[in-house]
């Protein structure tokens, strides 16, 4: 006769009671279920969420279209096309320096939020926010364009294209050797003069 045909006293009586014991004890413990999406819990401060393309204090874009982020990405999720800035009368300036990111896309169907791209960025143009709600009901909307990723304009910033507005020269601009643009703004006045 097989061993399983003769359950022991423990298997027959104590084991089922022990199982119910776990259920019974758990009934009196504090509930840990999170009521998402009705209650949103804060993330860890360094949580890797949606990316952001940052700006200089006058509103110019920090991205110089160098594509280093795209090369660093293990998931091939970033697409960048650079273009030249120009201070000529018929030209446009979107960032300090020679070039800017004319096209910038991140494909969140591919991105694994590893953060290698932000480590590769030489200008700290690309950082990551704590925003984690990156779901949608179609694939196209999960390819974020530059307009979706650019940081909002803060008080004192002006929508590019416009010349570099702060500091006495490029060195002062990059080193931040200027008074912070006042809301409203000192930067705007310099811009209209330049
Ligand atoms: S977080 Fe990682 S996977 Fe996502 S775009 Fe950056 S490098 Fe690529
Ligand atoms: S985000 Fe940074 S690394 Fe990527 S293209 Fe712009 S400047 Fe280069």
UniProtKB/TrEMBL annotation:
<dbReference type="InterPro" id="IPR010226">
    <property type="entry name" value="NADH_quinone_OxRdtase_chainI"/>
</dbReference>
<feature type="binding site">
    <location>
        <position position="114"/>
    </location>
    <ligand>
        <name>[4Fe-4S] cluster 2</name>
    </ligand>
</feature>
<feature type="binding site">
    <location>
        <position position="66"/>
    </location>
    <ligand>
        <name>[4Fe-4S] cluster 1</name>
    </ligand>
</feature>
<keyword id="KW-1278">Translocase</keyword>
<feature type="domain" description="4Fe-4S ferredoxin-type">
    <location>
        <begin position="102"/>
        <end position="131"/>
    </location>
</feature>
<keyword id="KW-1003">Cell membrane</keyword>
<comment type="function">
    <text>NDH-1 shuttles electrons from NADH, via FMN and iron-sulfur (Fe-S) centers, to quinones in the respiratory chain. The immediate electron acceptor for the enzyme in this species is believed to be ubiquinone. Couples the redox reaction to proton translocation (for every two electrons transferred, four hydrogen ions are translocated across the cytoplasmic membrane), and thus conserves the redox energy in a proton gradient.</text>
</comment>
<feature type="binding site">
    <location>
        <position position="63"/>
    </location>
    <ligand>
        <name>[4Fe-4S] cluster 1</name>
    </ligand>
</feature>
<keyword id="KW-0520">NAD</keyword>
<feature type="domain" description="4Fe-4S ferredoxin-type">
    <location>
        <begin position="53"/>
        <end position="83"/>
    </location>
</feature>
<feature type="binding site">
    <location>
        <position position="121"/>
    </location>
    <ligand>
        <name>[4Fe-4S] cluster 1</name>
    </ligand>
</feature>
<feature type="binding site">
    <location>
        <position position="69"/>
    </location>
    <ligand>
        <name>[4Fe-4S] cluster 1</name>
    </ligand>
</feature>
<comment type="similarity">
    <text>Belongs to the complex I 23 kDa subunit family.</text>
</comment>
<feature type="binding site">
    <location>
        <position position="117"/>
    </location>
    <ligand>
        <name>[4Fe-4S] cluster 2</name>
    </ligand>
</feature>
<feature type="binding site">
    <location>
        <position position="111"/>
    </location>
    <ligand>
        <name>[4Fe-4S] cluster 2</name>
    </ligand>
</feature>
<keyword id="KW-0479">Metal-binding</keyword>
<keyword id="KW-0830">Ubiquinone</keyword>
<comment type="subunit">
    <text>NDH-1 is composed of 14 different subunits. Subunits NuoA, H, J, K, L, M, N constitute the membrane sector of the complex.</text>
</comment>
<dbReference type="InterPro" id="IPR017900">
    <property type="entry name" value="4Fe4S_Fe_S_CS"/>
</dbReference>
<keyword id="KW-0874">Quinone</keyword>
<keyword id="KW-0472">Membrane</keyword>
<keyword id="KW-0411">Iron-sulfur</keyword>
<feature type="binding site">
    <location>
        <position position="73"/>
    </location>
    <ligand>
        <name>[4Fe-4S] cluster 2</name>
    </ligand>
</feature>
<keyword id="KW-0004">4Fe-4S</keyword>
<protein>
    <recommendedName>
        <fullName>NADH-quinone oxidoreductase subunit I</fullName>
        <ecNumber>7.1.1.-</ecNumber>
    </recommendedName>
</protein>
<dbReference type="Pfam" id="PF12838">
    <property type="entry name" value="Fer4_7"/>
</dbReference>
<keyword id="KW-0408">Iron</keyword>
<dbReference type="InterPro" id="IPR017896">
    <property type="entry name" value="4Fe4S_Fe-S-bd"/>
</dbReference>
